[in-house]
Amino acid sequence: MAKTLSQTYRETIAPALCKTLGVKNVHALPRVKAIKINVGIGSYVVAGKDPEDIVKNVIAISGQKPVVTHARQAISNFKLKINMPSGVIVTLRGKRMYDFLTKLIHVVFPRIRDFRGISSKAFDGHGNYSIGLKE
Questions:
Q1: Cα-only R_g, the chain
Q2: Cβ-contact 94, 33 below 8 angstroms
Q3: Do residues 64 and 96 make contact, with C-beta atoms less than 8 angstroms apart?
Q4: For the residues of 81-123, what is the DSSP string, one character each?
Q5: Cβ(16)–Cβ(85) under 8 Å?
Q6: Any bridge partners for residue 62, and if so which?
Q7: Which residues contact 127 (CB under 8 A, 6 or more apart)?
Q8: Bridge partners of residue 123, in order along the sequence
Q9: pLDDT per residue over 101-126, tens digit each?
């Protein structure tokens, strides 16, 4: 049976990182804690469409029901009114997170046309990494 991503991290990657970074405590190493999937639906709702289609797609992608976020204030330039649905968000942790990450690495990225890898410049100052994908 093939090793999961979490097993590979614990058995292979973590000891190598300890040597490379000179860290003795395994808990001080960088690791993936959570994956958040965000979908902006503002223009979809402004067009008069029901956001349930997007919610169903996010459920299919993540295996977990997302939360529909609503606008806190009105912004006329974006045709956004108060309490209008503006996004869908789901947070993955644990086994679902590792399953999603495995599918992203082994299935999605190889199928992207002209994929040249992910940028190392997408990290913010707090260790978060952001990837944007189009339909």
A1: 19
A2: no
A3: yes
A4: -TT-EEEEEEEE-HHHHHHHHHHIIIIIHHHSTT-----GGGB
A5: no
A6: none
A7: 30
A8: 129
A9: 999 988 888 888 888 888 888 888 88
